[in-house]
Amino acid sequence: MSSSKSLRPSPAMFVAVVALVMAMSGAAIALPGRSSVDASDLAKGSVTTKAIAKGAIGSKQIGGKSIKGNRLKDGAVKADQLADGAVTEAKIADGAVTAAKVGDGTLSTKNLSDDFIISSDAGNFVRLTATEGADAAAARAAAPETPLFTKGDITISAKCLQVTGGNTIAEMYIATATNGAVFNGAVDALEGGPAATDFLNTDTEDVDRTLDNATVAADDAVFNEGEFTALAPDGTSLIGQTTVGAKNGTLAGGDGVYGEGNVCVFGGEIAG
């Protein structure tokens, strides 16, 4: 009689096959599909810069206050990245905006604080380039009026004029936001009286509200100083000292504090 060998696997083979199946099943179960890796599966530092696709991280992926100043490269934040009104007075350090940062005619009265004294820093002055005209009246009408100081109803401003082929003229003015103010300056005075024109009003002409001025011919310079007082209907009371200079052409000894060209300089001190 013939006999056949048993085809039953040995215990060792059975254990080996089970271990292989479990190992294969474990690898297949670990990542069954997309979105199967969460934060707990990632070791600290395992996601590097190269592993992040360009544009993958946007505003929604960045938590509040998660990017600090020391994470930003120098020059990374430019004008295009600043929203209108983003830089407020509280964000500007004391002394950060100096006269060198302010262009001719760029300040308006609403930009000036009550204690603004002729320039952005004590001891500085304002330099303006002359605006040319056929005569003084034409140059005066064309020249921009640059505010120097404001408090309450009162504003102090300046113009720099150049008569074609003639004099350079520096003029410092006073203006009021409400009719009925009075002032007494180094050049003109409106001290009040029976007529409306005896007061400093909102429509008072430039030549009638001049605090101080300086006029100079070709290749020369002049520098004047004066005093003024002013009262406005809103209760503003000012007293001050004005300094006004003008230069025409080129000076033989060098242009010095005036700089090149036909220019005017304005300084002083105001209290009130």
Provide a descriptive summary of the structure in words.
It contains 2 helices and 11 strands, in the order αββαβββββββββ. It is 10% helix and 28% strand. The chain has a domain at 93-271. It is mainly β.
Entry keywords:
272 residues, 5-stranded mixed β-sheet, 2 helices, 11 strands, elongated
- Rg, alpha carbons: 39 Å
Structural class: mainly beta
Low-confidence stretches: 104-122
Largest sheet report: 6 strands, antiparallel
Strands across the major sheet, in which order?
1-11-10-9-6-7
Percent helix, as a range, is under 10%
Shape, principal axes of CA atoms? elongated
User: Would you list the SSEs in sequence order as H and E?
Assistant: HEEHEEEEEEEEE
In round numbers, the mean pLDDT is: 80
Terminal residue distance:
133 Å
**How many individual helices?**
2
Number of strands: 11
Strand content: 25-35%
